[in-house]
Design goal:
The protein is α+β, with helices and mostly antiparallel strands and 232 residues long. The protein is built from 11 helices and 8 strands. Strands 1, 2, 3, 4 and 5 form a 5-stranded antiparallel sheet that branches. The protein has a 3-stranded antiparallel sheet with strand order 6-8-7. Helix 7 packs across helix 10. The two termini are 19 Å apart.
């Protein structure tokens, strides 16, 4: 479990005794691009603690209207609905950047929760931070100019990807930000001219993180501070 604790920050925040409850049932898995972790209105079968890569939680109003409401990476887990006592969610969760992680069945996960109140308490702190992320995303999408929203999203993706090179398409960014692809392309060029990023086919390279933070302003940092306060 030592490697797991290092590579997934949420597992690393657990008490050793709580990690020991999960360890016998965790299985290492690869998580290819577009792999579903949760499908809307379907029973959740497994919980994933992501070690590398990025998963998107996507809400759909209609078949042709969808937008990302949250990101999960090496700081967190899927299956929050199970932790909150239900079996399914109306949202989709799938890998937007391929990676790997640790998988545990819902049955085994629930048994561990029943055996330890401290395990549940720590994981619920992550749910609290994720709910902050969704509310901040809603504010950003409603009130904040696209350049600030894009800078925020790139920073959040870099936090979870642990790399300056982000394998992201313009189409994907448009989905994440709830805008048209042309708007994303234009805004990326603005950030590129300011030497904050470089772009290539299906790639964004972060060149000046502090500059992106200045552009994002108050849209970035609140939930990151809350995560550190609660989970280290």
């Amino acid at each position: 479990m030592a490697t797991v604790a290092i590579r997934n920050r949420l597992l690393g925040a657990l008490l050793p005794s709580d990690r020991d409850l999960l360890a016998p049932h965790l299985r290492h898995v690869t998580l290819p691009l577009r792999q579903d972790l949760e499908r809307p209105d379907r029973r959740i079968e497994n919980i994933y603690f992501i070690e590398a890569g990025i998963a998107s939680v996507v809400a759909e109003l209609q078949a042709e209207v969808s937008v990302e409401v949250g990101l999960i990476g090496c700081e967190g887990m899927s299956g929050m609905a199970v932790l909150l006592g239900t079996e399914q969610t109306p949202h989709s969760t799938y890998m937007q950047v391929a990676g790997e992680g640790q998988k545990i069945s819902v049955k085994q996960f629930r048994a561990a929760l029943e055996a330890s109140d401290t395990l549940r308490d720590v994981l619920l702190k992550f749910v609290h931070v994720f709910m902050m992320q969704t509310s901040q995303t809603a504010i950003a999408n409603a009130r904040i100019p696209l350049a600030r929203r894009l800078a925020r999203w790139v920073l959040m993706a870099q936090d979870r990807g642990r790399d300056n090179v982000l394998p992201l398409t313009h189409e994907f960014l448009a989905l994440m930000l709830g805008v048209r692809r042309a708007g994303v392309t234009e805004t990326l060029q603005i950030l590129k001219r300011q030497k904050l990023i470089e772009t290539a086919r299906n790639l964004i390279v972060v060149k000046d993180r502090k500059g992106l933070q200045r552009i994002a302003g108050a849209a970035y940092g609140l939930l990151e501070r809350e995560y550190r306060r609660l989970l280290g």
